[in-house]
Amino acid sequence: MSPIPHPGASSRQAPADAAEARPPRAMFLHGAVKSLPFLIVMIPFAVLFGVVATEAGMDIAQVMGFSVLVLAGASQFTAVQLLSDNAPVVIVILSCLAVNLRMAMYSASLVPWLRHASGGQKAWVAYALVDQSYALSIQEYEANPAMSLPQRLAFFAGVATVVCLPWMICSWIGATVGQAIPDDIALDFAMPITFLAMIAPMLRTPAHLAACFVAIAGALLLAGLPSGLGLLIAAPLGMATGAIIETRANRKAAA
Amino acid sequence: MTNGPSDLTIWLVIVVLGIGTFLIRWSFLGALGNRDMPPWVLRMLRYTPVAVLPALVAPLVVWPAATGGQPDPARMAAAAVTVAVGLWSKNMIVAILAGAITLFGLLYML
User: Which of A45, A46, A32, A42 is CA-nearest to residue A137?
Assistant: First the structure.
């Protein structure tokens, strides 16, 4: 009847010309190329981490320790900030883990796609599971559900290589050139500006705005508490606010 | 920094944070595989970044360490511009540039 095939049907009937037919090596390249735009943000952010951490008194080995062992931008900045505030170690660790908690959600959402991977493969995916590698991979898996497991893993590896390696290399560059940057440039404010710029585009719904507002109000009201403690109270209050507003909005939409 | 944390403290944070972060990432993929998280947990997790990061930054904006904790109009304005441009453009790089230009512009003028 209609010359235009139904989109859902066509993707299932003709896998030969779609992404599903590509060998894993091609999928690796496909993932790598798709992640290139992220480098525009990633490279300056990584250099900045190296600079800020060095300014806070860390040596190159420690900067690399963060970027290789932790490999999670926002929490690395959080750790450096709280450490230079002389916050207690327990608070530094808890705050940074809270920043990374969202990755549990990524992990959960990849299960249906990577369930049958080997233990070692899952460990590698977990190590390289950052915002960017998650976002690109889940998008690809959902767009091409017929991809085989080796293709999925190869795509993830391609993305992870382009996203994670420059993070490490550019932190090292930042730590090396950071010592050459004069003190009178207001670098103290680079971190707040970067974080605010990261967050603002995420404030899509009233629930996100409310979560953000309550967390800020809480953090300012509790600023008198020992460093980092206010954050541990304010952030969960904000998260709960977001969840409550979302539930209400859903109920209203359903009614 | 002279009175900062010791090397040992920093390495302790790096190692514990590295292991903890890995376990968070590995959790469902590796260990909890076929269990579903309760919906309220997922709902809270959705708001972690927009709650944690602003709460971390807010005191730094209002009472910057560089001015000895005195509120500073240049830094406040830079933060406000960053958020406004970020909300409007939905683009992180544009927002960072706008904030940095505001900060350095005002610091230069004031």
Answer: A32
Return the structure tokens found at B41.
Answer: 């947990």
Q: Which residue of A has its CA nearest to B13?
A: A93
State pLDDT tens for residues B72-100: 999 999 999 999 999 999 887 899 899 99
SS3 content of chain A, % helix, strand, coil (to 5): 80, 0, 20
Q: How many CB pairs under 8 A join A and B?
A: 288
Q: What is the pLDDT of residue A185?
A: 63
> In whole angstroms, what is the distance from residue B87 CA to residue A152 CA?
34
Give dist(CA A159, CA B69) in Å, integer. 42
Paired tokens of A121: 């493969």
- The reported pLDDT for the residue numbered A182 is 64
Give the burial string for A51-80 (b: 16+ CB within 10 Å, else e): bbbbbbbbebebbbbbbebbbbbbbbbbbb
Per-residue pLDDT, averaged over A100-125, amounts to 87
ipTM for the whole predicted complex goes beyond 0.90: no
- Nearest Cα to A147, choosing from A30, A27, A1, A57? A27
Judged by phi (left if over 0) then psi (alpha if -120 to 50, else beta), residue A86 lies in left
**pTM of the full structure:** 0.72
* Whole-number Å distance between alpha carbons of B31 and B54: 31
* B1, B55, B86: residue with CB nearest A215: B55
Chain A residues near residue B13 by CB distance under 8 angstroms: 79, 83, 89, 92-93, 96
Angle between helices A131-143 and A102-114 (to 10 degrees): 30
Average pLDDT over residues A89-103: 87
- d(CA A16, CA A154) in angstroms, rounded, equals 18
A190 chain-B contacts, CB cut-off 8 A: 100
Q: Under a CB-based contact definition with an 8 Å cutoff, are residues A28 and A154 in contact?
A: yes
* Yes or no, beta carbons of B4 and A83 under 8 Å apart: yes
| Cβ neighbourhood burial of A12 (10 Å; 0-12, 13-18, 19+) | exposed
CA dihedral of residues B64, B70, B74, B80 (deg, nearest 10): 60
